[in-house]
Specification:
Distance between the termini: 67 Å
CATH topology of the largest domain: Elongation Factor Tu (Ef-tu), domain 3
Strand order of the largest sheet: 3-10-13-12-11-14
CATH superfamily of the largest domain: Efflux pump adaptor protein, beta barrel domain
């Protein structure tokens, strides 16, 4: 009996120790589960390991239950933390980065580039040899047809002209005398007073006098032309482009003196690829940009042959230039309008992008607040307006991203800063309020 009584307290102590070990194991499992629920995977595994160790120290039965509880805590809550996932990436755009697809009018045609040249360039040359007395115009000066540009020393030419006039007067007098003599001899011949030979002499004298008068008049015209050529006149209205002479120099006949350009109409000669030349016709309208201004012209001529080297056709376009607004040599870009398209869907050229794999065009379309990739079919491109026709893939009212705004991808959340500010009347979308202090 006494031994039995001593054994009972020992069993009670052992049972108490087992209970305490089980309780500690459960507490460790609960702590591990709570740590994993907060997304702390390693803490859950450590708690499970600790619970298993304590359970093993207390006894086989209690240690097995605590180890299972720790393992369950490590698996279950860790999976729940992964279920939350990462938030979708977002981007904030300005209103200028977004364009709305809308119907508009564009033009199709053939692009042209080149330098605008004066329609006519006139070289004024000396018609006589002599000393240049005075020059009256300079470069850049506007002149009219018949205006005096320069003058030669004319004393020799004036003397020749006066001599020629005197010769003409003498020839006329001689002819009149010969004609009177012929009339008298004709009357005498009819009366039989003179021989026929004398009548023939009188007739020949008249013919000789007529020839001398004609020669005198020719010399007078020649000397008159030389005297007139001492005054250099503008052959047409225009602008003095070059002045190549100065007063007091001696010039040979045919020496260059001035260059006059006519800028009222400018002309552009552009090479068009032969495959596009069929769309170009005489009379078609051409829109030009030169000196940051827009001008309109018309196709004046089209070359009938193809250049064998460049395989291009030369097209000549005339551009009216009232008031000499444009200068010769100005570089211009233009387009021959072959047709006009109305009420077609367009997007800015900066919205079009090209796929890296297949090279097909696409745009980034904003659906609500989500960015999507929309493959499109492109029609006519109006380079003058910077618009491209979309024949398939978009509808009127769709919003697309324009230009280079950074890295974009399907599914991104889009915030349009200016639009949100106008709609909300407060701070722009994308700026967040400060979180409340805890």
């Amino acid at each position: 009996m006494p031994s039995i009584n001593r054994t009972a307290p020992t069993l009670s102590a052992v049972a108490l120790l087992l209970a305490l070990a089980s309780s500690c194991s459960k507490d460790a499992a609960g702590s591990s589960a709570s740590g994993d629920a907060k997304g702390d995977g390693p803490a859950a595994r450590d708690g499970a390991a600790a619970g298993g160790a304590r359970a093993a120290g207390g006894g086989a039965g209690g240690g097995g239950g605590a180890g299972a509880a720790g393992a369950a805590g490590a698996r279950g809550p860790g999976g729940a933390g992964g279920a939350g996932g990462r938030p979708s990436p977002s981007i904030t755009l300005a209103t200028t980065d977004v364009a709305t697809v809308a119907p508009t009018t564009i033009e199709d045609g053939v692009a042209l580039t080149g330098d605008l040249r004066p329609s006519e360039t006139i070289d004024v040359r000396s018609r006589i040899e002599g000393d240049l007395q005075q020059v009256y115009v300079r470069e850049g000066q506007q002149v009219s047809a018949g205006q005096l540009l320069a003058r030669f020393e004319a004393s020799e030419q004036e003397s020749s002209r006066a001599s020629a006039e005197a010769d003409r007067v003498a020839a006329r007098a001689e002819l009149a005398n010969a004609q009177w003599t012929l009339e008298q001899n004709a009357s005498l011949f009819k009366a039989g007073a003179i021989a026929e030979r004398d009548l023939k002499v009188s007739q020949q004298a008249v013919a000789t006098s007529q020839a001398r008068l004609a020669a005198a008049e020719a010399r007078l015209r020649a000397s008159g032309n030389e005297a007139r050529d001492t005054r250099v006149l503008a052959p047409a209205s225009g602008v003095i482009d070059k002045r190549l002479v100065e007063g007091g120099v001696h010039l040979a006949k045919g020496a260059p003196m001035f260059t006059i350009v006519r800028n009222q109409t400018l002309e552009l000669a552009a090479a068009v690829p032969s495959r596009q030349a069929a769309a170009v016709r005489v009379g078609q309208v051409v829109h030009f940009m030169a000196d940051a201004r827009r001008f309109d012209g018309k196709v004046a001529r089209v070359s009938p042959t193809i250049d064998p080297t460049t395989r291009a056709v030369t097209v000549y376009v005339q551009v009216p230039n009232p008031g000499n607004t444009l200068r010769g040599g100005t570089f211009a870009t233009g387009r021959v309008v072959s047709r006009t398209l109305t009420n077609v869907l367009t997007v800015p050229g900066g919205a079009l992008r090209q796929g890296q794999e297949d090279g097909r065009p696409f745009v980034y379309r904003i659906d609500g607040k989500t960015l999507n990739v929309a493959p499109v079919q492109v029609g006519v491109v109006d380079e003058q307006l910077g618009l491209a026709q979309i024949t398939e893939g978009l509808q009127a009212g769709d919003k697309v991203v324009v230009g280079n705004v950074g890295t974009l991808g399907r599914g991104m959340q889009v915030t349009i800063a200016g639009a949100e500010q106008k709609r909300g009347g407060g701070r722009p979308q994308g700026s967040q309020a400060s979180p409340p202090s805890r």
